[in-house]
């Protein structure tokens, strides 16, 4: 443990040293967190950020649905927001959701309230915090379409209220400072009959179940779609469907998904992804960009 982590401030939440992260991410692979911190609430998190040693690295993770933790683990403090940050409330046509709320839970709550426009979140794995960071979306809709505002804390624990113009939303990304930690967001939809919203939500979910390997150990959509092209089609045309590296494999259900067949190392998964990128570039001249966030250091830690 480095010196910065040895002098962490007291918190009302919990610290866990050497916490295994493979149990917390969908790939079920990768190393440990030097320190895993679960804040009690937003005030506890703000106090930690204000008082932490200035050179301590901080990494925020959600449920790890679009995340690859490298085998050497993550140095410094990994922050994972617990259930206290997962509340979902309805106010008219608006939904206020904590950053730890599951995207699917927000979609279901909106459907129950007869709020249309958030159906797509039923098909987005992960939490609201991650969805904000990457402007998550599917089937033609994305976060920016329903976004009203977000609350975030900066590296010094100062609270910021971000409006649409502050987010700099682009395809599968936002352009907010990397050190901001989202704690909640507000979205707005339109009025519709709950039964109609639920029907569209279930239809979207059925499409996802038919076309994606959602029951496998995967990190979700691996590469961003290049302008004017589909990543899965480029991967298939490059002959990568079913390609393997150790126990990591390109899914034969949807080839923009990498899956862990058993006990794959994070290094196997990342190497497979890089081989796919190389084959696609050789075949089409297009360089795929990772959509999955890769964090931590290489190594043999398990």
General description of the model:
This protein is α+β, with helices and mostly antiparallel strands and about 300 residues long. The chain folds into three domains: about 5-85, Uridine Diphospho-n-acetylenolpyruvylglucosamine Reductase, domain 2; about 85-210, 2-Layer Sandwich (Uridine Diphospho-n-acetylenolpyruvylglucosamine Reductase, domain 3), CATH 3.30.465; about 215-295, UDP-N-acetylenolpyruvoylglucosamine reductase, C-terminal domain (Uridine Diphospho-n-acetylenolpyruvylglucosamine Reductase, domain 1). It contains eight helices and 19 strands. It has helices at about 5, 40-50, 105-110, 130-135, 165, 195-210, 230-235, 265-285, and strands at about 15-20, 30-40, 60, 65-70, 75-80, 90, 95-100, 115, 135-140, 140, 145-155, 160, 180-190, 190, 215-220, 245, 250, 255-260, 295. The strands form six sheets. The chain has a five-stranded antiparallel β-sheet with strand order 6-7-13-11-12. It has a four-stranded mixed β-sheet with strand order 1-2-5-3, with no helix packed on it. Strands 15-18-17-16 form a four-stranded antiparallel β-sheet. A hairpin with a 2-residue loop joins strand 6 (about 90) and strand 7.
* Total separate domains: 3
Based on Cα principal axes, name the global outline: globular
**Strand line-up in the sheet with most strands:** 6-7-13-11-12
Number of strands: 19
Structural class: alpha+beta
- The CATH C-level class name of the largest domain: Alpha Beta
CATH topology of the largest domain: Uridine Diphospho-n-acetylenolpyruvylglucosamine Reductase, domain 3
Average pLDDT confidence is 94
Radius of gyration: 19 Å
Unreliable runs: none
Strand content range? 25-35%
Order of helices and strands: HEEHEEEEEHEHEEEEHEEHEHEEEHE
The CATH architecture of the largest domain comes to: 2-Layer Sandwich
Major beta sheet, specifics? 5 strands, antiparallel
- In DSSP terms (H or I, runs of 4 or more residues), the helix count works out at 8
The end-to-end span amounts to 17 Å
Q: What is the share of helical residues? A: 25-40%
